[in-house]
Amino acid sequence: MLEIRNLHVALEEEAKPILKGVDLSVEAGKVHAIMGPNGSGKSTLSYVLAGRDGYEVTEGSVSLGGEDILELEPEERAAAGLFLAFQYPVEIPGVSNMVFLRTALNAQRKARGEPEVSAPEFLKLIREKAAELNISSEMLKRPVNTGFSGGEKKRNEILQMAVLEPRMCVLDETDSGLDVDAMKLVANGVNALRDAGRSFLVITHYQRLLDHITPDVVHIMVDGRIVETGGPDLALRVETEGYGDLVKSVA
Amino acid sequence: MAVPRKALAEAKRLEAETLLAAAPLPAGAHAGWARDARASARSRLLEMGAPHRRDEYWKYTSPESLIAKDPGEAAPRADDADPFDGIGRTTLVFVDGVFAPDMSDDPAEAGVEIQPLAEVLAADIHWARDLFGVLEAAGQDPVSRPLATLNTAVAEAGVAIHATGKAGRPVELRYIHRDPGSDVFLRTLVRLEPGAEMTLLESGAAGARFNTCMEVSVADGATFHHVRSQGREHERRAATALFARLGAESTLKSFTLTANGKLTRNEAVLEFTGDDAVAHVAGCAIGDGDFHHDDTVFVTHDAERCESRQVFKKVLRNGAVGVFQGKILVKPGAQKTDGYQISQSLLLDEKSQFNAKPELEIYADDVQCSHGSTSGSVDETSLFYLRSRGVPEAEARDILVLAFLDEAVQEIEDDALADAVRAYVADWMERRRG
Ligand SMILES: Nc1ncnc2c1ncn2[C@@H]1O[C@H](COP(=O)(O)OP(=O)(O)OP(=O)(O)O)[C@@H](O)[C@H]1O
Ligand SMILES: [Mg+2]
Q: How much is the pTM?
């Protein structure tokens, strides 16, 4: 599904290298997790995948379902089925959550040559998904993420994912800031979307989330590289031992 | 180089003479009080002089083309639709400043009393006598507003509205522009008796050059809503003035949408004279290229526990210029005043520019006043967020522009009217998509 080959990325402004040769391949239907110390480049990877400005790919390639996506605009990547749940979801005062999501869904459908979803159809869809995530209709009417608590913002990201139904979901620390119940809601939301045609790349610092969303593969990123890859037990090891040895092995 | 004070005053006086000489003396019968009001305006104008680019109050906007002998040419736009078309209302149409009864609804259906200005000035109507030229004259202190005084001296067309109860639906004054060289003066008088309620709509460019002045007296417990759109002609010029006096527990909400226009100066002068009243003035200006838009607001709190809000937003592109001069004056004794003022611009490129001069002048100790002014560009993080969800860039930018304006649009209390304004702006944005 997602093929990242020898990806080197530098900050455009400072020409500072952040990713220094990332290799990663997420197969269809699989859940991969990325862990790693603060500042190791996890969010940078997620932004580069989603097409954010300010980063320069100096080497390497990224393809989604066999198609090279590095030349695509962010909206084209979204229409191609890529979704990023942001580490820090953005507040947009003045734009209602509901209008935003409908605009996004229909824009994607239009880009794919599919018919747009009518207002009543959309209302039914979003009500159903919102209920599963315990998101009130009042929250749907409010401006995007504006005044939402940290946990509400994260649930709102998962709601967007559930409505947009991407095939490649990148979750950047969706678990941070969540209480135990919210964590379960989010994990259930993710698990409900798991199927053979959909893949996940879950960035997290904690085993806690991985208790609910069992990953197939766990990667450790240190200083812009994947330094170790293993099964779910690798995450458990990090949880008890920390990154100490892995960081040293790089230095 | 400083012009000697005396020479400037003399130049302003001469210019005022020219202005008065150029405009014909209002014909038609005038009652004694109306004749006096006209004469007083003439002598006041000569005394204060015409506006001059060296006046502090005209620092950011040159008045020259507003007072030039030649009003300039402006191509009328036949496709300038009325944003309020979907709203049930009584519409009175003016074509190049002349009332067009055959194009208008029957004013008798309006739910308020509407008379031509000339009729009111010819009669002995005490509410009109207490209003015409009176609020305008009171609004000359501490800053002079000569274009409004000129209007008092010469404007013949317009309506006088008297609301005694709750009007069932809005009244619209629709200003159609057909003659490319029309120089239009209109005067509006509005009196709301205690407890009365009405909504007044205005739309259209009116002429190549438009000088309009509205005096509104909102009696105790009355409510006045005002929503206007200044059309979307590119070459027209306009100087508008709104003078309002608010009684106790009254409400005034005025919103202005300006799309395009070479030059617009919108002045609003509000005064609280009774306690516990509320006045909001708001505006959205959207300009592209040869566009200069100036909101100049002066709010005087001379009563207790009144709330004033000024919310002005401007979206500027291709070298468009925005100006905001807003002042809140809290007089001694106007305790528990709640004053808020915000003016913001969204600059869509580096050529556009915004000048803001927010002022507070407070002589009471127990008040809450705040003001803020910002100027910025579209937030890149928000833009990326929208795009990452699949919204194409141009559409995402438009969404953010509309969102930026919405704080001002929300000042319109009626949802249908607010939506009409939103739709008008969305169309304007959409036409500009690359
Ligand atoms: N726009 C930027 N400007 C300056 N430095 C940046 C920028 N983006 C990323 N960096 C730097 O790149 C490095 C990687 O940052 P990134 O946010 O990708 O780390 P992370 O692994 O997601 O960390 P965390 O676990 O704290 O979320 C850090 O040193 C960070 O300071
Ligand atoms: Mg991060």
A: 0.90
